[in-house]
């Protein structure tokens, strides 16, 4: 069982405490909670737990298979635990970045960005179709880390990210902001402001964004949500609406190049390809 599943009681308690804090310490600059939005986030979290049971079987099979093939085997130790934790955080940066830059992967990740509010319940909006993470964990298994160690590192990484989904915490001590992913950094990541799009992909350590030039500090008020919000609280629509959009867009284009763009290039390039196809003059019917 994942660490995140064991942490569910703590999630619930912290969400309740944050909710109560808005009652006694209101702040007009923060959006707080609404019943429908929070219910949608909790529903997404419950769906993630259910769907992840199936995905976990696939992950176990793949990781165990690769573990049997590799000649490298790193035993359990504190050094190994630190190594796999840092290794996964580095690979998570690239997995997360790919989830924003490859549309078929964005279709799974988009639900995490679908709320127009930002509170601890937003962290529960996790993907129900989790196959995109699989190839990014395999290098650690190939290097000799056991599947159990990799799963634990992945769970710990996700567990860390729960607390950064809040407006209640401002900027922290500068050395912490320089190294760690914080609520301020992650608010930027959830922003639909033009300057905030596709920035701050870090899981635990913001140093990856600084190193690979995707870091942007929080300098203006964040507008949460998507550039084109879906305006629904139905968890099924939240989870699968982008797959439906991809199906619609594949029908709208006709060339292999455009179909590749719709599936595997960035969402922006995919939308541009569809617009071009829709605006192209139609061939006259044969006489």
UniProtKB/TrEMBL annotation:
Keywords attached to this entry: Lipid metabolism, Membrane, Oxidoreductase, Transmembrane, Transmembrane helix
A Gene Ontology biological process term: membrane lipid metabolic process
Transmembrane stretches, start-end: 6-25, 45-63, 75-94
Domain Fatty acid hydroxylase, residue spans: 83-214
Cellular component GO terms held in the UniProt record: endomembrane system; membrane
Places the protein is found: Endomembrane system
Signal peptide: none
InterPro entries, A to Z: Fatty_acid_hydroxylase, Sterol_desaturase/TMEM195
Domain of life: Bacteria
Bilayer topology annotation: Multi-pass membrane protein
Pfam families linked: FA_hydroxylase (PF04116)
Single GO MF annotation: iron ion binding
Entry protein name: Sterol desaturase family protein
Source organism (scientific name): Actinospica acidithermotolerans
Lineage, broadest ranks: Bacteria, Bacillati, Actinomycetota, Actinomycetes, Catenulisporales
């Amino acid at each position: 069982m994942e660490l995140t599943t064991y942490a569910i009681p703590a999630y619930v308690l912290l969400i309740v405490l944050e909710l109560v804090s808005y009652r006694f310490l209101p702040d007009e600059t923060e959006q707080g909670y609404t019943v429908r939005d929070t219910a949608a986030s909790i529903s997404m979290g419950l769906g993630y737990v259910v769907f992840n049971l199936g995905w976990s079987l696939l992950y176990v099979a793949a990781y165990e298979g690769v573990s049997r093939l590799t000649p490298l085997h790193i035993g359990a130790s504190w050094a190994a635990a630190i190594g796999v934790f840092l290794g996964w955080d580095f690979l998570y940066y690239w997995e997360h970045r790919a989830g924003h830059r490859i549309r078929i992967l964005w279709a799974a990740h988009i639900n995490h960005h679908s709320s127009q509010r930002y509170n601890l319940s937003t962290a529960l909006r996790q993907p129900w179709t989790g196959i995109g993470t699989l190839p990014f964990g395999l290098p650690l298994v190939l290097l000799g880390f056991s599947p159990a160690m990799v799963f634990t590192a992945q769970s710990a990484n996700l567990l860390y990210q729960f607390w950064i989904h809040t407006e209640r915490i401002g900027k922290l001590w500068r050395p912490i902001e320089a190294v760690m992913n914080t609520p301020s950094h992650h608010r930027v990541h959830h922003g639909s402001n033009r300057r905030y799009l596709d920035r701050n992909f870090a899981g635990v350590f913001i140093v990856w964004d600084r190193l690979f030039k995707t870091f942007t500090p929080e300098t203006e008020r964040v507008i949460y949500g998507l550039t084109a919000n879906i305006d629904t609280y139905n968890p099924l629509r939240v989870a699968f609406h982008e797959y439906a959009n991809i199906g619609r867009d594949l029908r709208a284009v006709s060339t292999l190049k455009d179909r590749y763009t719709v599936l595997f290039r960035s969402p922006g390039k995919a939308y541009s390809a569809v617009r071009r196809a829709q605006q192209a003059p139609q061939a006259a019917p044969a006489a």
